[in-house]
Amino acid sequence: MKLRDLLVDVPLTGGSLDPELEINSISVEKQGGQRGVLYMELSQDSPGTSSGGAVCVNGSCLQTDDPWLTLARLGANWYCRPGSGMVLTAVAGGGDSALVVHLLQIVLETVPHVRVGVIAPDRVWIDGVELPRGQREPGGLCVQRLLRRMADARCTHVILHLDDGALMRREYAGLRMSVTALTGPTRHRQELGALLAGSDMTVLNLDERDWEDYVSIIPENTFTYSENKARADLTARNLRLFPGHVEFEAVAVGKIRRIHLPVPGGFAVYHGLCVLACGLCLGLRLERMAGVLRSAQGLRGRMEVLPVCAAYTVVMDEACTPESLERSLTSAREFTAGRLTCLLGCPAQGEQETLRQLGSVAEQLADRVILTGTDCQRQAAMRAIEDVMSGMGGWHRPCTVEPDRERAICSALERADPGDVILVTGAGVHQGPDSSDERELIHSYIRRQHACREKGARAVV
Q1: Into how many domains does the chain fold?
Q2: Which has the closest alpha carbon to 79: 199, 175, 167?
C-alpha cells in the first residue's frame, strides 16, 4: 500500500515523508528501521494512557498528539475499512455491559443467515468460535485486524464491547455503528460523544439518572427503555423475581410479550430490556427474541445461580470492585427469603482503598460476611483481609475470617438455613480450572450433607 493511501485522515504533524513509499506492514513493535515497515510509537505515561506518539518510516518520523486515534485510523486504512460491510453494534459504558453483549450475541446467532462476531476486552468470537487468549490487544489497530478476519469469515453482524479503556483508546474510530447501547455513565465523555455521533441509533435507559449530565451529547435518534416510564419506547411491566430468573412483560408500540430471562436480580430486567431494544433497532421481532431468551444461559461467573439440590441458593459472581459488589448484593437481596451471606474473596493485588470500600459495602448489605483470600499464599491473603476489615468499622454484621478459601466455602454451606442465599465472590468464579474446582467443591459438599442427613434419618427410624 502506498504511504499516501495509508495516511488518509490520519492526524500527523512535523516533517514530511515520501507519499509514494510502498508500505509492507504496520506495527506497534519496534522493527529496527526495516524498510517498508510503518512503526507506531506510543509514549506511555502510565498503563492505558498516552500523551503523544510518532509514526516512523525508514528512520523518519511524524508526530501526533492523539496516538490512539492515529493508530485506529491507520488500522482502518491498512485493512481497507472492513467494518463498512457489516452491521456494527456497540455496547458501551459502565454497569454490567458484558452480560448485555453475551445475551445479544445469543439472540443474533439464532437469526437465519446471520453470522456474528464479538470483540470484547477479554475475548473474541468469530461465527461461534472463540479465538485463543492473546488475540485481543489494546488499540484500534487490533480491532481493525479482527474486523478484517470477521469480514473474510463472512460475518454479517459484529458486537463491539467498549469499556472505559476501549473508549479512551478510541477503538471505535473509523467505524460507523448501526446501534450504540449505553449501559451506564463513563469517565470519557468526549470519546463517548464521538462514538454517538458516528452511530445511526442510540439505545438509552431512561431510569439512569446520571444521564442528566450527558444531555449535550445524546443524539435525537435515540431508542429508550425503562421499567416504568410510559414515555419510553420499550417498558417492563408486571415484574416477578425468582432465585434463578426474572419475568416481565416487554411492552413496545403495538407489541407486548412475556419475557423469561434466566438471570436473577432486578438489574437483569434492565439487561434484558437493553438487549430487546438493540434487537428491535436491528429489525428483530420481539416474539422471536422472547423465545430465544427463555432458553438462554447467563454469563458464567456473573450472578450465576448454581443448580444445587438444597433449600438455600448459591450464587457465584466475580464482583471485585465496590460498585459491582453493591450491584450483586442488592440483586441477591431481592430474592433472599432468609439471610444473605457474602463470602468475600479479598484480592491480594487490590489497592488498599478499594479493599476498604469492599469491606464497607459487604458490611452494609449482607447479613453475614465471611472474609477469605484469593491468593494461595496465606500471608498475602491475610494482608488483603486486614485491609478489607479496616473498612468494616461499624461491625454491625457477623463477620468470620478464614484465609483458606476451600474451608471458607464449606463453612458458608454448613451454616446455611432454608431460604438463605450465599453469594460467592472473588477467585474461581469466572474462567479457568479454579472455577471448575470450586463448583465441584460446592456440589460435593452438598451431596455429603444429603448423605449424612439420610443416614441420620434411617438411624432414627
Answers
A1: 3
A2: 175
| φ and ψ of 266, to 5 deg | -60, -30
442-446 long-range Cβ contacts below 8 angstroms, 24+ apart = 442/306, 442/308, 442/314, 442/409, 442/413, 443/306, 443/308, 445/409, 445/410, 445/413, 446/308, 446/309, 446/310, 446/413
Tell whether 216 is covered by a domain: yes
Q: Residue 269: which domain range?
A: 82-294
In a domain, 41, yes or no: yes
CA distance 291 to 296: 9
Check whether residue 229 and residue 93 sit in a common domain.
Answer: yes
Same domain, yes or no: 59 and 134: no
Of the candidates 78, 100, 131, which is a domain's last residue? 78
Please give the span between the terminal C-alpha atoms of the chain, in angstroms, as a whole number.
Answer: 85
Query: Mapped to the 3 state alphabet, what secondary structure does 214-243 carry?
Result: HHHHCCCCEEEEECCCCCCCEEEEEEEECC
Say how far residue 221 (Cα) sits from the centre of its chain.
25
Cell of 364: 452494609
Q: Crossing angle, helix 322-333 and helix 352-365, to 10 degrees? A: 10
Grid cell digits, residue 314: 448459591
The sign of the CA dihedral 142, 145, 149, 155 is positive
Residues 284, 326 within the same domain: no
Residue 41, classified by CB atoms within 10 Å of its CB into exposed (0-12), middle (13-18) or buried (19+), is middle
DSSP helix/strand/coil, 213 = helix
Q: Taking Cα atoms as reference points, which of 8, 59, 11, 51 lies closest to residue 31? A: 59
Q: Rounded to the nearest 5°, which phi and psi values hold at 350? A: -75, 150
pTM of the model: 0.83
Grid cell digits, residue 58: 525508514
265 and 145 in a single domain? The answer is yes
Average pLDDT for consecutive 10-residue bins of the chain (461 residues)? 87 79 82 73 53 77 86 91 95 83 95 96 92 88 95 97 91 94 86 91 88 79 91 93 89 91 88 95 95 88 83 86 88 90 86 88 90 76 85 72 88 90 74 58 82 60 42
- Is 288 in the same domain as 210? yes
Length of the chain, in residues: 461
Residue 359 phi, psi dihedral angles, 5° rounding: -65, -40
Within-domain flag for 299: no
Of the residues 45, 78, 111, the one at which a domain ends: 78
Considering the domain architecture, whether residues 89 and 166 belong to the same structural domain is answered as yes
Q: What are phi and psi of 260, to 5 degrees?
A: -115, 110
Residue 461 lies in a domain: no
Q: In terms of domains, do 146 and 158 share one?
A: yes
Residues 229, 235: contact at Cβ < 8 Å?
yes
Do residue 345 and residue 251 come from a single domain?
A: no
